[in-house]
Amino acid sequence: MKDRIGGHLGRLAAALLGLVVLALAVLPAHALEAIPVPLDSSAIDLTESVDLYLRYGDRIQISTAPDAEGFVRRIEVRSREPGHTASWAVFALRNDSDEQIDRLLVAPYFRMVGSGIVRPDLGQSRISAITPSQGFRPDREDSHDADIYLITLDPGAVVTYVVELAGDSIPQLRLWQPDAYKENVNSFTLYQGMVIGIAGLLALFLTVLFVVKGTLIFPAAASIAWAVLAYLSIDFGFWNKIFDVPVQGDQVFRAGAEAILAATLLIFLTAYLSLMRWHVRLLYVAALWLITLVGVAALAVFDAPLAAGIARLSLGGIGIIGMALILFLAFRGFDRAILLIPTWLLLLAWLVAAGMTVTGRLSNDLVSPALAGGLVVLVLLVGFTVMQHAFAGGAIGSGMLSDFHRKALALIGAGDLVWDWDVPRDRIFVSPELEEKLGLKPNALEGSVRRWIDALHAGDRDRFRASLDAVVEQRRGRIAQDFRLRAADGHYFWYRMRARPILGDDGEAIRLVGTLVDVTEIKNAEERLLHDAVHDNLTGLPNRELYLDRLEAAILRGRSGETRPTVFVIDIDRFRQVNDGFGIAVGDSILLTMARRLQRHLKLSDTLARLAGDQFGIILVSEGDPKRIAAFAEAVRRTIRTPITFGDREVFLTACVGISVFDGGDKRKEDLLEDAEIAMYHAKRFGPDRVEAFKPVMRTMGGDRLALESDLRRALEREEIKLVFQPIMRLDNKRIAGFEALVRWDHPRHGRLNPQEFLSIAEESGMIVEIGLFVMDRAARQLGAWQRAMGVHLPIFASVNVSSRQLLRHDLINDIRAVLDRNEVVPGTLKLEVTESLVMENPEYAAQVLERVRELGAGLALDDFGTGYSSLSYLQRFPFDTIKVDRSFVRHNGSGTRPVILRSIVALAHDLGMEVVAEGAETDEDAIELYALGCEYAQGFLFGEPMSAEECRHLLARQSAMMRH
Fold first, then answer.
1. Has this prediction a pTM greater than 0.85?
2. Residue 647 parent element (H or E)
3. Where is the PAC domain (predicted)?
């Protein structure tokens, strides 16, 4: 029995606890305090004293403020729309007097203070209904810009008011004494009327100014005035008085007005600074911005807060960017930008004040009217600024000019200086700007002709004096002459004078009047062009043309019995590798160093010139003894061999030198230089670091090279170019994996020539492109035939070398596509071999080309890996699937072991997902060790020498037969 009673008591305690929790959730967290309403108070701000319950529900239960006896009651208020989740505001008022008090409760629709920047509060009806805890509901007063309710408080009464809000916020709630409120409204109405009137007059005035002056800045300024007028009309509520617009419509118009105000400011800035004339890119940005603002104005119809937020951010952006642009142009001397600085500073100040207002930092009641007045002052400043352009031109601006005035203005516009000689009085007048530029004292160049001529360069005086005498004596003609005038610091400036005589009544020349133009820069440019035409731009040495000119002069002196010239042609060995390894900038520095070093060995009568990229020429006339000439050549060779230091690195270079000596015969300058070049090429053939003197037999050798080039051009037509194939073995099963296609030339006289004997000639003559395409097409055709004969279970591949001219041609992609379209091969089995040094000539371009080649279905192999300067950092950026290791890494070193770097190369290739082909495998030991290192393929004389396609077919057939058995 006791257990049953204990259970009932437990359930009862739980129920009471639930009711307490529910009550705590419903009741406010603090007691409501009544606000006293004094009789003499004109206005009480209730904004901070109101308890807000946002999204509370369709009903609210509230405890009233304690009355005079301290009693607290509970009241429940329902929403006007059942089921509607409403927001509520609660406050209490207390009348401590013994008189009845009438007050107006005012909640303005829109208040700029605290409205926000992003999705701002653009105004709406704030109060849907007011319910008092006692007495009658307050009566609503008619108003176009606020919710106004008349509240009556009995003597000694304490009344709690529950306000159902129309939205979720109430920016301001004030309790006004009726007469004070009317006086406040009337005072602001007067101010607003004055501001609207001034804004309207400014808009009308600027519009009239636009009609009078058709320049673009006037309609731009007028558009700002009309936009401000529209904005103020909406802000002051005049818009609602003219048009019957509901409260929600104000949001649309207010957002649209702000967007239009930003757009007109942007139009004015663009037109005033003439961005459409001088700054095309800025004009594009402004046009895009303007189109966006027009779209924002249209967006206001659908989402007014979002449109207003974008417009306000745009206003700030226009102010800041506009100020930066104005200052930039002002520092560059643009007059319009300078005149606009005060106006834009006022705009920035207005934007700062407006920003502080909408964010709530400025909350005074006078802030909003002051901002409205500031807009009108801004329009006034804009009007003053554009008026300077409206009335600054006078007769010039209106176009009323005589021909005399036009000529005078043209002279001013051209910037020419006036030169005037009064012949009878022998007085010369010049523009003061000339003396100022020359650094002379005022009137230093004025006076007699003798005084003027003394200021000229000595080489120009006689010619100028003769021109003056001729014009005065003949009483006709013109002077068009260039001369030099001496400045105060001793320097000379070039001037061009154009003048003509003016005749008096007696037909004599009484004046000589003309203009002076500074042509110093033109003359300097001409001298630079003349210098650059015969000198090298990098080293400043004579170029090939000036070298030949001086050589011709030296030959003429040699024929007259003076010292005979000796011609040297110096070509630096492997200089292209220096550019590839260290960069073009280092290569240029090396050439400059070489030029300075070689110059030290020459005397004033000798000549050093840069004939080509890494080729220098010397004309030696200071030495005639053969022994001294040979010693000079040896000194040149030692100079070039001296290492050049760059930072912590040293560069060692050598050169091949060709020498030809003038023998007093009928040789021309071109022949003498050609002899030295032939000797230099002969030295390169047996060099490097070699000096050769020209011998007549060398010219025959050069003729053989020309004949070989001529034969090579017809070799493809005669089908003399053949392909041979060297096997590439798979090391894991000792089977043929593919072939490398090698080119041979069956010359009708010299027999079979290897690539090193004719490919350099093909590169120089451009024939390498045709030969490369021929090799690629024949290799693909042969590969397709082998694959069809063997099946595709384990397709073999064929590798073809690509030259630098092929890789750098834009038609390479089309050539590969055509070859693959004509020949049916398994994708990826036609491999193009590209050397490491070739891709490093232009890594970025090579990467793009190789990626497109890979997309076409061709394989890619990096040939001679490890012999270049450094492609490790670029290796992962190239789409290679195979690395071919140079034979230098496969051969044993001096201690009988293979280079350690071979293991690193194989590991690196595998980490990058590539296969490895090792070249130079010549013994079984090589194959075993390469397989142990992880190489997939090997190529070398161990597996076969280069053979014909028919021999390859038989080799593949034997391999297939062995696989079947």
1. no
2. none
3. 479-531
